[in-house]
Amino acid sequence: MLPGHVAYGLGAQYGLRVATDTVIAWERGTALPSEYELRALAGVLWCSPGELLTGARTLREHRMAKGLDPAEFARLLGLTGDAYRRMEESGRWRGNDRQSALLNKVLGLTAAGFVTVSGRDEELTGLLREAVTTRWQARVRPIAKLVPLEHGVVQDVLEQLHADYQALMVPTLSWSGTGAGRGTERAGTAGDAGRAFLAEVLERFWRTAGVRGPRV
After folding, report:
1. Which of 3, 10, 51, 151 is buried most deeply by CB count within 10 Å?
2. Do residues 205 and 157 touch, judged by C-beta distance below 8 A?
3. Which helix (H) or strand (E) holds 213?
4. CB half-sphere exposure, 24, CA atoms < 13 A
């Protein structure tokens, strides 16, 4: 169905005044409909809200994909409505172990999906970059507190990532004996590879840990 037809259907069936450009923005993921707009959009397209939010990342997006209001979702997770709303508004999950287990069960999350929904991807990425560029041993404990993986698994993954990154950077450290021109070229190549490694270090962490995708 073309965006213009979708916009017309939203108006004709649900009384919503939605511009065609807005529908296009929803399709591209540059804008998110309100909860009522999402339900209406699902009605026009004859699908469930969850089918429209397959790339859900935040608590709010996951809740909307389930078609639940905040109070219902809070009850499923063993939280008060106010406590849940504060988490949703802040984008940070702060539930205890039991509530976190319920969140994973209700949403069907992998370890990677849980960290994303918890709003901790950026924090984890920063710690991983420190681990591969400095002493990885010092980052095991803080990373283990963020991710739902066994301590030993985190330790093994960090050790491997550190070794992989340092192997890339060896040409940068030992170029001086190869001739200035060739050495500079090799150092530049290694530097590019190192930057690429750091840019995707979060994805590398999950792949090395054997975690695939956000959902089970």
Report:
1. 10
2. yes
3. none
4. 4
Residue type, 191: G
CA-based torsion, 95, 91, 32, 205: positive or negative: negative
Which tens digit of pLDDT belongs to each residue from 64-82? 888 888 999 999 999 999 9
3-state DSSP percent of the chain in helix, strand and coil, to 5? 75, 0, 25
| Average pLDDT for runs of 10 along the chain of length 216 | 86 88 85 81 80 79 87 95 95 94 92 94 97 96 95 97 91 55 58 90 96 74
* CB atoms inside a 10 Å sphere around CB 49: 21
Mean pLDDT of the chain: 87
CA 153 to CA 194: how far, in whole Å?
A: 24
Task: Write out the two tokens for 199.
Answer: 């840019």
Whole-model pTM? Answer: 0.75
DSSP string, 44-94: HHTS-HHHH-TT--SHHHHHHHHT--HHHHHHHTT--HHHHHHHHHHT---
CA distance 95 to 17: 38
Quick one: tokens of 35? 């909860």
